[in-house]
């Protein structure tokens, strides 16, 4: 994470200084006029509590959230953070109470979908505190939501996989058949098809746990046995990368945390979440009084590449493993709009387009057909956010059952 | 190519089931039920990884894993043999404790990488089509499991030591009157059994999937308990059972496109455990057969002298 921090440092520190000074003045003025809602800070200190569903040592989801927590905690003197890990869903309510009553937290982040209802309830019990729930859709005056999605990155990974596959078969290890994963798998296959229309993507479901390296290993090995030489995954361990590293001619994409070190010669790229910048944004707005316990009902972060919540790579600041850049540069494709260019340039171009403020490229742009050859997204149309969040069908070319 | 890969996956998965099952067979043959397998396996997996990382030597890591397995088993032995506490409660406590302990031991080692035990092809055998790459191009712990099966069988059924162990498990009072130190025999069996569980845990993090992350066994230590029963407390059937379970584990992914619901395939190890229990109950209700294979009569029964 540290390389990442330095990359952004100069710009961010300056921006933050300006914001704090500027908003501090503004806040002082508004305070003089008369404060409306309860602010926990009065520009004093702020205490944030985090509830994780897994151990921070999972090197996946909870680990990434904790990296984000440490990032903001290290950065601001006014901020104090505490966390509870491996909190079972049925304990959410009393752990939130503990964070507020015993630890004196002003704001609590609950970082798993299953905490949704308990977080809303806690919002009712503690109307003077603030809550943020990750990946859910229920909000209240003092409960906001936030999430970062990877589908654009899976599409970019797909471009590379489609260009580099020798067998024409790419594979995907997936934990559970929920819209998030179906969206990821589709994006991966759409990217691959863009550079090589005959590529198929075979899916193996774990259906056990989010975090089950034993099953993930076997699933990856069975994909290799089926002839797949490019593997991506959505589950919470680095296992698929290790399997790729052990098998000659098999390559993989890292997921969630910077996992490239697990497969230095086989990890092509990957998807990285940077919860730190999102936590920074939220906590600063709370600190500066922009968010309080009355105005969170419409606060719903869904960060993609444009917002900097997610980025391409198996390591921060390394979008593509340098070992593969020459290979990607040597393969040319013809894009109807961009003309003939190398896959490497195509990936870079798409990054520019998707980080553009207007997001001038969207992977889910029609015509897109499902597995039964039915037209699901009309030519020229983009899938709506709602369609993407509720998607339950596989695009043509995916080999697998979306309802296993 | 692909059949070799699948066969190879089955062997590596089966080895993870097999080694701790041999340990549990030894433990239960002496009359002690140790439900702490999951705890011992995961703690020793963490310990083996940590020590391998620190020393750079996978074999020292394996020994550390075995030591941790042995020490945890000693706790169970003290509670269940010396203090005659309820073995089920003690074993389950050991599993819960071991799961927590593994998180503590492995805390600083998440995300680290080690040099795993490498496959050592066996000269001559590794060139046999299919069987060579599947069975004889593996790491040393897989070979160890091949050797442990006949060794444990020989000790249990062809030596005086084996008779002593089985007598202690079948009828400790009679063993005691013959001058056998029941307590000592049980202690040794439980500790050695724990060390085999430790070897299984070490196999996981040092050979099979060289990384440590919390909860990585995913509760598969419990399959060992089921396997011990399915195998009727016999090393040879344990070998077959472990490979059958290994096959279920691997083939669940191969059958994903067959139209059979995945959840059903995931159920097979447990469903087959129930089927085997039923079959054994019907087929083996004979005293003569039971002496060779079957639950030791004094399993889970505390022994008090005099």
Would you kindly provide a written description of the structure presented here, covering whatever features stand out?
The complex is a heterodimer of chains A (about 400) and B (about 300). Chain A is α/β, with parallel strands linked by helices and about 400 residues long. Chain A folds into 2 domains: about 45-150 and about 275-305, 3-Layer(aba) Sandwich (Rossmann fold); about 150-270 and about 315-400, Rossmann fold, CATH 3.40.50. Helix content of chain A is about 40%, strand content about 20%. Chain A is built from 12 helices and 17 strands. Chain A has helices spanning about 1-35, 60-75, 90-100, 115-125, 150-165, 180-195, 215-225, 240-245, 275-285, 325-330, 345-355, 385-390; strands at about 45-50, 80-85, 105-110, 130-135, 145-150, 170-175, 200-205, 230-235, 250-255, 265-275, 300-305, 310, 330-335, 340, 370, 375, 400. In chain A, the strands form 4 sheets. In chain A, strands 12-10-9-8-6-7-17 form a 7-stranded mixed sheet, with helices on both faces. Chain A has a 6-stranded parallel sheet with strand order 2-1-3-4-5-11, with helices on both faces. Chain A starts with a helix and ends in a 5-residue tail after the last strand. Mean pLDDT of chain A is about 90; it is low at about 1-5 and about 25-35. The longest helix of chain B has 28 residues, at about 1-30. The model of chain B has no long low-confidence stretch (mean pLDDT about 90). By secondary structure, chain B is mainly α. Chain B has a two-stranded antiparallel sheet. Chain B has helices spanning about 1-30, 35-55, 60-80, 85-105, 130-135, 140-160, 160-170, 170-175, 180-210, 220-230, 235-255, 260-285, 285-290; strands spanning about 120, 135-140. In chain B, about 70% of the residues lie in helices and about 0% in strands. In chain B, helix 1 packs across helix 10, helix 1 runs antiparallel to helix 11 and helix 2 (about 35-55) crosses helix 10. Chain B has a single domain, classed as ABC transporter involved in vitamin B12 uptake, BtuC, CATH 1.10.3470. Classes of the chains: A alpha/beta (about 400), B mainly alpha (about 300). At the A-B interface, strand 7 and helix 7 of A face helix 1, helix 11 and helix 12 of B.
């Amino acid at each position: 994470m540290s390389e990442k921090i330095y990359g952004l440092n100069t710009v961010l520190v300056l921006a933050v200084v300006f914001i704090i000074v500027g908003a501090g003045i503004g806040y002082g003025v508004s305070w003089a006029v008369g404060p409306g809602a309860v602010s926990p800070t009065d520009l004093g200190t702020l205490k944030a509590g985090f509830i994780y569903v897994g151990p921070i040592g999972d090197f996946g989801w909870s680990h990434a959230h904790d990296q984000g927590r440490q990032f903001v905690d290290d950065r601001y003197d006014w901020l104090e953070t505490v966390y509870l890990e491996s909190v079972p869903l049925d304990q959410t309510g009393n752990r939130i109470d503990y964070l507020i009553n015993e630890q004196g937290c002003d704001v609590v982040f609950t970082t798993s979908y299953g905490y949704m209802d308990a977080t809303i309830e806690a919002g009712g019990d503690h109307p003077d505190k603030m809550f943020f729930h990750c990946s859910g859709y229920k909000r209240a005056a003092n409960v906001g939501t936030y999430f970062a999605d990877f589908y654009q990155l899976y599409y970019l990974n797909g471009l590379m996989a489609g260009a580099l596959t020798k067998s024409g078969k790419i594979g995907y290890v997936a934990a559970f058949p929920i819209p998030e994963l179906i969206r990821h798998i589709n994006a991966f296959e759409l990217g691959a098809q863009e550079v090589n229309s005959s590529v198929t993507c075979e899916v193996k479901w774990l259906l056990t746990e989010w975090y089950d390296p034993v099953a993930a290993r076997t699933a990856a090995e069975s994909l290799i046995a089926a002839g797949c030489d490019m593997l991506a995954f959505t589950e919470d361990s680095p296992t698929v990368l290790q399997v790729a590293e052990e098998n000659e001619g098999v390559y993989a994409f890292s997921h969630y945390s910077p996992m490239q070190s697990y497969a230095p010669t086989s990890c092509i790229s990957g998807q990285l979440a940077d919860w730190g910048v999102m936590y920074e944004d939220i906590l600063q707005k709370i600190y500066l009084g922009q968010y309080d316990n009355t105005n969170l009902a419409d606060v719903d972060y869904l960060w993609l590449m444009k917002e900097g919540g997610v980025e391409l790579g198996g390591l921060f600041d390394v979008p593509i493993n340098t070992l593969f850049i020459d290979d990607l540069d040597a393969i040319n494709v013809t894009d109807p709009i961009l003309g003939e260019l190398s896959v490497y340039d195509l990936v870079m171009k798409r990054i520019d387009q998707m980080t553009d403020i207007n997001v001038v490229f969207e992977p889910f742009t029609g015509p897109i057909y499902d597995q039964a050859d039915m037209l699901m997204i009309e030519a020229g149309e983009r899938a709506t956010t709602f369609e993407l969040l509720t998607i339950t069908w596989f695009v043509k070319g995916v080999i697998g059952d979306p309802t296993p | 190519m692909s059949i070799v890969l699948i066969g190879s996956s089955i062997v590596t998965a089966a080895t993870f089931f097999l080694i701790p099952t041999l340990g549990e067979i030894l433990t239960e043959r002496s009359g002690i039920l140790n439900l702490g397998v999951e705890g011992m396996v995961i703690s020793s997996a963490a310990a083996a990884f940590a020590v391998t990382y620190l020393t750079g030597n996978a074999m020292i890591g394996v020994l550390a894993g075995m030591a941790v397995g042995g020490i945890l088993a000693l706790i169970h032995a003290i509670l269940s043999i010396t203090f005659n506490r309820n073995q089920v409660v003690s074993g389950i406590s050991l599993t819960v404790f071991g799961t927590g302990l593994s998180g503590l031991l492995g805390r600083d080692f998440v995300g680290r990488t080690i040099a795993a035990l490498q496959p050592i092809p066996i000269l001559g055998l590794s060139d046999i089509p299919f069987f060579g790459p599947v069975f004889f191009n593996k790491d040393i712990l897989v070979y160890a499991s091949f050797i442990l099966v006949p060794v444990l069988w020989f000790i249990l059924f062809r030596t005086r030591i084996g008779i002593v162990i089985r007598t202690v498990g079948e009828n400790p009072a009679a063993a005691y009157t013959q001058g056998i130190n029941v307590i000592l025999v049980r202690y040794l069996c439980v500790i050695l059994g724990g060390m085999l569980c430790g070897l299984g845990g070490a196999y996981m993090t040092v050979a099979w999937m060289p990384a440590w992350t919390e909860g990585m066994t995913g509760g598969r230590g419990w399959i060992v308990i089921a396997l011990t029963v399915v195998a009727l407390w016999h090393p040879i059937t344990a070998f077959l059972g472990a490979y059958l379970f290994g096959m279920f584990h691997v083939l669940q992914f191969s059958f994903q496109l067959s139209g059979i619901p995945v959840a059903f395939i995931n159920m097979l190890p447990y469903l087959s455990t129930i089927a085997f229990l039923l079959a054994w109950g019907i087929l083996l209700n004979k005293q003569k057969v039971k002496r060779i294979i079957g639950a030791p009569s004094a399993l889970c029964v505390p022994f008090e002298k005099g």
